[in-house]
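Late entry, zinc ion complex.
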Amino acid sequence: MKKFFAILCILCLLCACSCTDKPPVQQDDPPAPVDPIDPDPANPVQPDPVEPDPIEPDPVVPVEPDPIEPDPVEPAYPDISDFEVLDPTVVYSLREFELVAPDSTAAVYPAGMTFLSAGEVDSFAVIVRADGLYLAPADAFSADKPASALALEFEKGGSYYPGSDKVVVIDPGHQSKGMSEKEPNGPGSSVLKAKVASGTQGVATGIEEYKLNLAVSLLLRDELIERGYTVVMIRESNDARISNAERAVMANEYEADAFIRIHANGSDNPDTKGAIAIFQTKDNPWCGDLYAQSRLLSETVLEYYCAESGIENDGNWETDTMTGINWTRVPSTIIELGYMSNPDEDRLMATEEFHAAAALGIAQGIDSFFDIAED
Ligand SMILES: [Zn+2]
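Prediction complete; structure with ligand written out below:
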């Protein structure tokens, strides 16, 4: 019997081989090897288990990728990858809302901000920003507010960091390119000044003022976020194009509790040194009513800044010539960190240790301002 089965096995193998071989062989022989197998009822067991095996793994493979598909359910936002921006309009946020980035990360924005909307998809507004399209609940906006180019300018460089109800707006003075076009130096003023001067430069280091201002401002931002404040950065890049009036109006839009403008000084006299704070006079026609608050903010910030940085405190300068102050409706100050025309101060202000100390001191001054103002 064993021999008999062995022969059958060989026949089976021959048959299997011939089945997969070229047709010419099959055409001649098929009837002979195939027939003998059929009459034997004892052996059909062998060929059967061989064939189903290769079939089984096949259906298993396509089943596995299926459970991976549920992922696309996650984004609850409409796909705007093909959205075409045709005629954007400025909209005004009526309430706090979430602005969702293309990668589904979201940030919370307060009521009162202006944005550029390119239309609606489902129940979402498509918001246009410099780095792409975002989504927000359409019912959070109204187009009632007069259109303003300021929102768009701001969107090119500003950032908002939600925190407590105390809002600090930081304006790193200047930007990589000045804007020589003129703007009124106060609301309705006939005096026109360049939108943004190019700023000064380190006499020893060659560092441009706008870079120093931003370096200190970014650390100040981090200090204030850590202390729980809501922080608004007018710019976080040197490539911004925002006029001084626009910076002030943005501080107003955010209803800043403190508007801190970071600058560095320059003088023809290389011996001139020290830090000063600049704010409006009490007779300022646009913001004289904010004189006391701006003065308190200036004095506290300058005091703590000088104590931490080691820069000499050269006092206050009250003036109504500053566009970025005249347009404000919030407590504001310009801190002139020191003189970049003084080689010693220039070299000191170029160090990372100074940047950190300056940011720490200014943050302490802001804490102190709020402490005193609330008493
Ligand atoms: Zn400056």
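The domain at 150-374 is CATH 3.40.630.40 (Aminopeptidase). Will revisit in the morning.
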